[in-house]
Structure formats: structure tokens, C-alpha cells
Design brief:
Length: 353
């Protein structure tokens, strides 16, 4: 990890500056090095942790790289740092802090409402496009993403909202749905591994942790306990969405493309014309950091992760789609399927000469 940071000057500078901010504030309150805490020091610390540190994170990490939505997590982390570093007797002089946290999170709620408004104003066109795509198959995420790209091109806010729609669809409204495909061949990838057990274990752990942590934090600060409870509920919905999307979105092979969607958090729409070669994977079990940068690992989590069955090489880098509109390029794909021989021969036969 140290080598990875050293190769990225911006990240290295951010780590140094953030560490200095946290360390100086901790030393000020938690060690006798500077003697009594001077009057007004709390204001300076709050500015550091609630304004300077989030702004630093935005301009050096998030800006032009990740969704603005991550700022909600950054702001919450700043509040948590303030409560952990500044002694309670000093914070008691500023009772507005919990309300400031509510206002901050409320601002991001308004941002999401703005996103929803943007989509709603173009909803008729989007729904028409979605219904056309949905009549061909039941791949909700693929269809809604295509509809958004057609109706709201280059709209980052809409791409963020796609993740929210998909998560709630899969976690709450898809339990009675079945896979429907009118064109192409489907290949499942979850029946011969323990991916379902992995997600159930994670959901179970989050649920137990939520109860215990909520009870513990509620006696200290009810607002923080409720914020963490909401985040844990969000985490459970996310895991349920992954579980359901894995069941409902097998790999799809058509005459023109191969759709690889693992759960709902990563996917690739791959034209067959961009496939250079498919072969049995014979490499090492683990990939180096350099390999991972250009690799789409289309395997699902497993209690014991087996080696990939196949490796697909591409002529040109292809986009891998992640949650909240994030994307990156990949030139190689590794994957496992439940029926490897059939998948291999059908994909081989479908490739252009």
C-alpha cells in the first residue's frame, strides 16, 4: 500500500496533510505537550475537521474522479473525528453540532431530490425507452442504464440515481421475479459456489452489529446512533440487492454482444467484435496490482475463491460499469460459470471470423 501511495503524488500529499490535521488536533487535546487548551481552540479544531478536511478531500481525492455523493460520508467522518478527538467538556459549549450534522446530511438529501427532479422531468421519454428494452429481457439494471444513456446523455446525476433505483428494485421489489430472456443464451454463475451464503453472512453480521452499536451509541449521542443505524440499513439493502441481482442477471450471450453483470455493482456490455480470444485460464490464483488495473474480474465472492475458469482478451479497452456511475477500462476479463463447457463452445462459435 505504501508503494501505491508513493506512486501518486496527489494522494501522498493528501495523506500527509490529513494526518497533520488529525495529529495536531489530537496532540492539542489528548497530551499535556502544550499545557492547558487555549480559549477558542475548539473553534479552530472544528474548522479543521468539519470544513478544511472535507474540502481537502474533495479537491484532492473526489473532484473529477468520484461521485459528489461521497462527500456525505466525508462530512460524517469529520463529525466523528471531532467527537473522538475533542473532549466532551469542550464540545458541550457548542450544542449546535448535532444539528449541524443534520443540516449537512439534509443538504445531500436535497441534492438527491434535485437528481430525482431532473429525471422526473424527462420521465416519459425514459419510461418509453425502458419498456422497449424490458420487453426483450428482465435485466433491470442493464435496461434502466441504457434508457438513461439514451434519454439523459452525459447526465452524471441521473447515473447516480440509477444505482439507487436498482438497489431498491432488487432488494425490495424483485423477490417474486424470474429471469426472462427472449433473445440470447443465459449462463448462471452462482449455483455452484457459496456466494449466497457469503451475502447472507454479511447481512446477518450487519444486522447484529446494528443492534449492539445502536444501543451503545444511543446512550452517548442519539443522533450519531441513528445516523449509523440508517447507514447499516442501507448496507443491508445493498447486500440484499447484490443477492437478488446475482440470481436474476445471468451472463447473457446474443448474436452481437456478451453482457457480464455480477450482482448489481459491476457489469460490462461487451460487443463480440471486440473479443480477441477466449481461452481456459492457466495463470496464477491471485493477480498483481498492475494486472488488476486492466482486469475485469467477473467472479462473485466465494468462501473459498477458486481460480477463474476462462480468460477473455479484448482488441480494445472496454468500459466496466460500477455503482454511482463510476467506470474504468479493462483489456482482460476472467470469469466462472456453472456450465463451463457449453459457455466456452457457444461463445467460441459466436465470435466473428
Amino acid at each position: 500500500m505504501t508503494n501505491a501511495i508513493a506512486k501518486k503524488p496527489r494522494l501522498l500529499l493528501y495523506v500527509i496533510l490529513a494526518s497533520l490535521i488529525l495529529a495536531t488536533n489530537y496532540i492539542l487535546y489528548r497530551t499535556p505537550l502544550f499545557g492547558p487548551v487555549p480559549e477558542g481552540a475548539v473553534i479552530g479544531s472544528l474548522l479543521d475537521l468539519l470544513i478544511i478536511l472535507p474540502l481537502l478531500t474533495y479537491f484532492m481525492i473526489i473532484h473529477k474522479r468520484y461521485s459528489l455523493k461521497y462527500m456525505g460520508i466525508v462530512i460524517f467522518a469529520g463529525f466523528a473525528a471531532a467527537y473522538l478527538i475533542v473532549p466532551q467538556q469542550h464540545l458541550s459549549d457548542y450544542p449546535f453540532l448535532p444539528y449541524l450534522l443534520i443540516v449537512s446530511e439534509g443538504a445531500f438529501l436535497l441534492f438527491e431530490l434535485y437528481i430525482a427532479y431532473t429525471v422526473i422531468t424527462r420521465l416519459p421519454k425514459l419510461l418509453k425507452e425502458y419498456k422497449t428494452l424490458a420487453s426483450r429481457n428482465s435485466f433491470f439494471l442493464f435496461n434502466i442504464r441504457k434508457a438513461v444513456e439514451t434519454s439523459l446523455p452525459d447526465n452524471t446525476a441521473a447515473r447516480i440515481l440509477v444505482t439507487e433505483f436498482s438497489m431498491f428494485h432488487y432488494s425490495l421489489f424483485s423477490w417474486k421475479k424470474k429471469v426472462q430472456i427472449d433473445h440470447g443464451m443465459a449462463f448462471t454463475y452462482h449455483k455452484k459456489n457459496s456466494v449466497n451464503a457469503v451475502y447472507i453472512m454479511v447481512i446477518h453480521a450487519i444486522a447484529i452489529e446494528s443492534v449492539g452499536l445502536h444501543y451503545f451509541l444511543h446512550s452517548w449521542n442519539p443522533i450519531v446512533s441513528y445516523v449509523l443505524l440508517i447507514l447499516n440499513i442501507y448496507g443491508i439493502l445493498f447486500m440484499l440487492a447484490e443477492l437478488q441481482a446475482t440470481r436474476l442477471t445471468p451472463f447473457l450471450l446474443t448474436d452481437d454482444y456478451l453482457l457480464l453483470q455480477t450482482g448489481f455493482s459491476s457489469s460490462m456490455h461487451l460487443p463480440l467484435s471486440n473479443i480477441k480470444e477466449i481461452k481456459r485460464y492457466e495463470g496464477p490464483e491471485k493477480f498483481s496490482r498492475k494486472e488488476q488495473k486492466e482486469l475485469f474480474d467477473a467472479r462473485v465472492p466465494d468462501l473459498v475463491q477458486e481460480k477463474p475458469m476462462f480468460e477473455i482478451l479484448l482488441h480494445e479497452p472496454q468500459n466496466v460499469h460500477f455503482i454511482y456511475g463510476l467506470k474504468r477500462k479493462a483489456t482482460r476479463i476472467v470469469l466462472n460459470v456453472d456450465e463451463p463447457d457449453i459457455f466456452y463452445h457457444e461463445l467460441k462459435r459466436s465470435l466473428p471470423e
